[in-house]
Amino acid sequence: MNIFFSNLFRLFLHSFSAQVVELVYLPAQAGTQDLKVKRMFYVYAISSRVKSYIYVGLTDNLERRLKQHFDGRSKTTRPYRPFELIYSETKETRIAAREREKYFKTSKGKDYLRTISK
Question: How far is CA 40 from CA 28, 67, 71, 81, in A?
Fold first, then answer.
């Protein structure tokens, strides 16, 4: 690995340490290549430890979002704390993540999450 790419990669990792990202080379013009960042999106489910409640969401930074839930900074989930993460998956596009999130918010999706949380 050359020095330029090594330093660029270190800077990249530092900037996105809490996110899963993918480096992709895409041609900008004929004969040249540019380094592009491909963001990943998370679909996740958390379950209340004290009440019968499962919350499903999507984010591009799972660590930050879970901390918001656990710290009570999310108005929707605050009354149901404490939580445990019961499911997460990554998707390459926000559209794909949103479709998966919608599925988990249906009764069939919630039933699936209840079976894996027991």
Answer: 22, 18, 24, 27
Tokens of 90: 């990554």
CA proximity to 38, closest of 12, 5, 62: 12
* pLDDT interval class at 32 (50, 70, 90): low
Choose among 43, 71, 68: nearest CA to 57.
Answer: 43
Which pTM was predicted?
Answer: 0.71
Q: 107 is written with which tokens? A: 């009764």
Among 69, 19, 11, smallest CA distance to 39 is for: 19
Angle, helices 94-104 vs 107-117, to 10°: value is: 80
CATH number 3.40.1440.10 is the correct assignment for the domain at 41-117: yes
Q: Any idea where the domains of the chain sit in the sequence?
A: 3-39, 41-117
DSSP tag of 78: G
pLDDT tens readout for residues 58-101: 999 999 999 999 999 999 999 999 999 999 999 999 999 999 99
